[in-house]
Write a structure and sequence with these properties.
Elements: E1 4-8, H1 15-26, E2 29-32, H2 33-46, H3 54-60, E3 66-71, E4 74-79, E5 82-83, H4 91-100, H5 104-120, E6 123-127, H6 130-134, E7 140-145, H7 148-161, H8 168-184, E8 197-200, H9 206-222
Helix pairs in contact: 1-9, 2-4, 2-5, 7-8
The structure holds cytidine-5'-diphosphate (2 copies).
Length: 223
Amino acid sequence: MNYSIAIDGPAGAGKSTIAKSIAQKLEFIYVDTGAMYRAIAFYFLRNGIKPEENQKIQECIHEINITIEYEGDVQQVILNDENVTAHLRTEEVGNMASKFATNRDVRLKLVDLQRNIASTKNVIMDGRDIGTYVLPNANLKVYLTASSTERAKRRWLELKNKGIESDINEIEQDIIQRDEQDMNREFAPLRKADDAILLDSSNMTIDEVVNEIIELYRKGLIN
Ligand code: CDP
Ligand code: CDP
């Protein structure tokens, strides 16, 4: 039987950083589902298709083939035979991903892929709807959050460390807008699953969050 850990929560809560670290420690596969939504957004951006063009999206969704590969333990996203991983982490692609992620056809396509991966491997998967929709029977579910001010600060610092100056207030507004979009969409919105454990990391270091989740995992193995 495969073991699955679902980590959901809003932008900048620390999901991917924490999930990557836990995957290494437990020797699980880390699946970044946000990168898949970003790859779809990248495809539509490149082809001049807008999020509100539902008919066009439906017509060309079958032309998109996304696969996931691993270089060591680093996830690579392959879009129609092209490795697009390096293009996905911009704010523009993130904001567009959130818009295209409201589309039902887009979600159904990616959910299939995500469930297939989890059916063959021990996974820690992060996103918005993993515990509520993609893997409702996940062995451990965590809803990871932090205040929008703290999340903006983290993103700002992350950019600064890459040599990019940015406006922290603008980042916070972007984050709030994306949260609203993700929480209020009709299909598979972001919300805490009833059986998910809520972790507010506003005042926690990365190591503290990682250790807490590993502790929950170990307790779950005993019970
Ligand atoms: O994946 P998600 O958008 O939820 O967040 P992330 O990209 O993993 O984390 C955003 C930033 O916050 C990264 O630079 C992390 O290093 C940082 N972080 C932190 O400072 N403290 C935490 N407890 C968690 C993340
Ligand atoms: O790293 P960050 O939290 O900023 O975003 P991400 O995880 O890369 O996801 C980008 C966008 O994709 C999110 O704002 C969501 O709208 C969407 N997404 C989703 O709808 N469902 C998922 N399972 C993962 C991402």
